[in-house]
Amino acid sequence: MKILIVDDHPVVRKGLRSILEESEGIKVCGEAEEGNVALKIIKEQKPDLAIIDIQLKGNINGIELVRAIKERYPRVNTLVMSVDDGSLYAERAIRAGARGYIAKEEAAGEILKAIDAICRGKMYLSSDVSNFIAGKYIVGAPSSPELAVANLSDRELEIFQLIGRGYKRNEIAKKLNINVNTIESHRRKIREKLNLKDSAELTKTAVEWHSSMSMQ
To answer: Rounded to the nearest 5 degrees, what angle is found at the Cα of 211, between the Cα atoms of 188 and 54?
Structure first.
């Protein structure tokens, strides 16, 4: 099996490569830190599976990359791996076409299980994500703040989380490789969807949200 690793952290890529190449029958055919590079490698190498982080360098995030792969290379399976809260991204990733979703802290123990399941045509979700999704549909709709954030687009959610992590406009623009005016447009849409009156309230809400997610 040929696997492509897509992650913006060299240490993570090195660790994943080490885990994968110790497993018989797996070959890492490439690494990428941004979506456009990943798509180029997929075109050239035709991997069986791409393991993708949510946060990437460049102007394509992990969810958008999954969607692009699904549209352009439907035979290439995708497994999303992220440090971000699964309740925010797991369903988005699956809707975009991913065959699995695991948390980075569980990667060493679950990555090979996930790959094996996907190879056998099954979906794979880490235990925390499975419990969240099951709880959501058994218990009922999420609370109002969670429901409001769930209404953000993938890009808006990405920017909202970066604001919560303390990134400024220029820093977000540089990280996502888009101009500041576009960032400001997204910030305005986020304020409208979350019913926030100004930038100060947006920053406060984003920081509080990020803190609450980190404590879960």
So the answer is: 70
% the chain with pLDDT above 70 = 85
> Does 66 share its domain with 125?
yes
d(CA 47, CA 75): 9
Domain count, the chain: 2
Residue ranges making up the domain that contains 49: 2-135
Same domain, 206 and 129: no
CA 147 to chain centre: 19
Cα 204 → chain centroid = 23
Amino acid code (one letter) for 11:
V
Report the C-alpha gap between 169 and 180 in whole angstroms.
6
pTM value?
0.73
pLDDT band at 213 (very low <50, low <70, confident <90, very high): low
Question: What is the average per-residue pLDDT within 129-137?
Answer: 58
Helix (H) and strand (E) counts for the chain?
11, 6
The residue from 106, 135, 164 where one domain ends is 135
Q: What is the Cα–Cα distance from 182 to 156, expressed in whole angstroms?
A: 11
Radius of gyration of the chain (CA): 17
Amino acid at 147: L
Backbone angles phi, psi at 142, to 5 degrees: -70, 165
| Cα distance between residue 216 and residue 213, in whole Å | 5
Q: pLDDT digit string (tens) for 111-128?
A: 999 999 999 999 998 776
What is the rounded distance in angstroms from the CA atom of residue 183 to the CA atom of residue 174?
10
Give the rounded distance of the alpha carbon of 186 from its chain centre: 18
